[in-house]
Amino acid sequence: MKPLVLACMCLLLLQNTSVRIARSDEINPPRYSITELNTPGKMSLAWAVNSAGHLAGSFVLDNGEQHAFLYRDGKAIELKSLPGFPISEAVSLNDRDQAVGYVERDFVRPGPDRIPDRELRSVLWENGELHDLTESARAGDRAVAINKIGQIAGYYPAYLYANGTVTRLASPTLPPNDPLTSLEPAALNDKGQLAGMWFPDFHHGRKAFCYDGGKVINLGALPGGDFSEAKAINNRGQIVGVSHTTNTPDKKAESHAFLYDGGRMTDLGSRFAYGINDTGTIVGADFKGACCWIGGKQYLLDSQIPAGSGWHLSEAFGINARGQIVGRGDYKGQTRAYLLTPIATTSLTQR
């Protein structure tokens, strides 16, 4: 068969099939299946999901105790706490199923005044065991992030933990012994870059920051605002978070989600952005509920799950490389953790 005839036949065949390449502006957001984690207690939420689809979060029992959990192989595994610490929270998880977070207890200070107080400790859960980083490594009292090589970030005071050693992170613009020198990291990528919130000085609101190579970079705020906070950073250095867009005494502060990329902060036009993966898909929340941003467009996640599921997705906190999303939502009258998994389709798309 001549090449020209063969090419024409192939063209006719393609024209009569339902499979086609879509333009980037025609891409539809993925549909998701939803998994309820069947955690104990009256309330649960999931903060993080790793590449295997394993989750970290916490659930609240009827007696008010809050317990950290790791979800894998269809089961929620309760994580240990320290004796006398009834509250635990797992907030970050890497691909080795190492989880970090904190444990907490209320106590009364000794003395005639009997002043109530609270104690928190940074912890690492690994292979079913709990490691007290505050006690063993003199870390701050709240671990917030762990990356694939096991570096851990936390605060009060701010620190980066690696290979058994804690490095203190101080604000470059405040006195070393001032209590406000504690930056507040919220996220850590696999390159060791940090993102979070800090005080640039005493006269202005807190600002989102990136910590890279020992330097603190002030990300600023959206136009009109004097407060911002970074929530997540991916391995491309893209950062998402929330910023005020008003800063006048006669107006209630309005908050918008932002994306910081290439030295520029972009207003996403919604309330909160909590997570971003390496493809640039962002997850967060709007007034109507959990949402995502794909290719610069925002989508309500309630509209992307099966109709009649009984779920209202309130917030989306984390997303992995496969596009799986975790957060919390309302299901059968309770606040429950969820896992969304993209449903494979036969259509071919091109970004």
Show the helix and strand layout.
Blueprint: H1 3-15, E1 21-22, E2 32-36, E3 43-49, E4 55-60, E5 66-72, E6 75-78, E7 87-93, E8 99-108, E9 116-126, E10 129-132, H2 133-136, E11 142-146, E12 152-155, E13 159-162, E14 165-168, E15 184-188, E16 194-198, E17 207-212, E18 215-220, E19 228-233, E20 239-244, E21 255-261, E22 264-267, E23 272-276, E24 282-286, E25 289-294, E26 297-300, E27 311-319, E28 325-331, E29 334-342, E30 348-349
Parallel strand pairs: 1-30
Antiparallel strand pairs: 2-29, 3-4, 4-5, 5-6, 7-8, 8-9, 9-10, 11-12, 12-13, 13-14, 15-16, 16-17, 17-18, 19-20, 20-21, 21-22, 23-24, 24-25, 25-26, 27-28, 28-29
Please give a structural write-up.
The protein has helices at 3-15, 133-136; strands at residues 21-22, 32-36, 43-49, 55-60, 66-72, 75-78, 87-93, 99-108, 116-126, 129-132, 142-146, 152-155, 159-162, 165-168, 184-188, 194-198, 207-212, 215-220, 228-233, 239-244, 255-261, 264-267, 272-276, 282-286, 289-294, 297-300, 311-319, 325-331, 334-342, 348-349. By secondary structure, it is mostly beta strands. The protein has one domain: Methylamine Dehydrogenase, Chain H (7 Propeller), CATH 2.130.10.150. The strands form eight sheets. It has a four-stranded antiparallel sheet with strand order 2-29-28-27, with no helix packed on it. The chain has a four-stranded antiparallel sheet with strand order 3-4-5-6, with no helix packed on it. The radius of gyration is 23 Å and the shape is globular. It starts with a helix and ends with a strand.
